[in-house]
Write a structure and sequence with these properties.
Elements lengths: L2 H7 L13 H12 L10 E6 L2 H9 L6 H4 L2 E8 L4 H15 L7 H11 L3 H26 L3 E2 L7 H8 L6 E10 L18 H4 L5
Antiparallel strand pairs: 1-2, 2-4, 3-4
Helix pairs in contact: 2-7
């Protein structure tokens, strides 16, 4: 199945059947999320993988009672940095230079220039920018799930502050941004499963400038 075929197959699953997602499929989805591009390679987010049913029940309670949260095999939560700092950037760049086998100071000039741009923009800008990076990873995870014939439901419909409390994110300098239940569709209980996928026509969606 090609990527386009997989994307045509997927939809925002409204009812899941509780079937477990095999570990190798989950690992594939998470690897795609990890390999996503991010600005300056900072990856200013983490992914929490939740299979604990009690915790899923608590998340459902602050996610407008969406049943996919508890019927899913796993619930993934993207949590972005609540702000950039020179220390965080340095940690990432130090890992990069070490992995590439180049001197630690090789990225000092770029690091100084990057922090010089980011610092004056303030924490609200930082948090929003980090969240936008998380969306890129989130999108690739959805595509990877479709490739694996694993259903997924992209969710912004939850109360971030409450999820932050449940996962102890404030203490980690993180804020929940997106939730992605993974599992398998309930063919008989999902009102959306057989409805036609509708998207903007190509000639309206694409503008070519030559």
């Amino acid at each position: 199945m090609t990527l386009i075929e997989a994307l045509k197959w997927r939809y925002a699953t409204k009812k899941m059947n509780g079937q477990a997602v095999p570990q190798e499929k989950l690992d594939y989805i998470l690897e795609a999320a990890k390999l996503a591009p991010s600005s300056s390679g900072l990856q200013p987010y983490k992914v929490f993988v939740i299979s604990n049913q009690d915790l899923k029940e608590k998340i459902r309670a602050v996610s407008f009672d969406q049943s996919q949260v508890t019927d899913a095999s796993h619930v993934l939560v993207w949590a972005a940095w609540d702000g950039y700092s020179l220390e965080k950037i340095t940690t990432v760049f130090n890992r990069t230079t070490e992995e590439r086998g180049i001197p630690a100071e090789a990225m000092d000039e770029y690091k100084a220039r990057l922090w010089g741009m980011y610092e004056p923009l303030g924490q609200e800008w930082h948090a929003n920018h980090a969240a936008r990076q998380a969306y890129i990873s989130f999108g690739l995870a959805i595509a990877a799930a479709a490739e694996q014939k694993v259903d997924a439901t992209p969710m912004e419909g939850f109360i971030p502050a409450e999820v932050d409390k449940l996962l102890g994110l404030n203490e980690l300098g993180l804020k929940s941004v997106l939730v992605l239940p993974l599992g398998y569709r309930d063919e008989t209980g999902d009102w959306l499963v057989n409805l036609k996928k509708v998207r903007t026509p190509q000639d309206e969606f694409i503008t070519e400038i030559k």
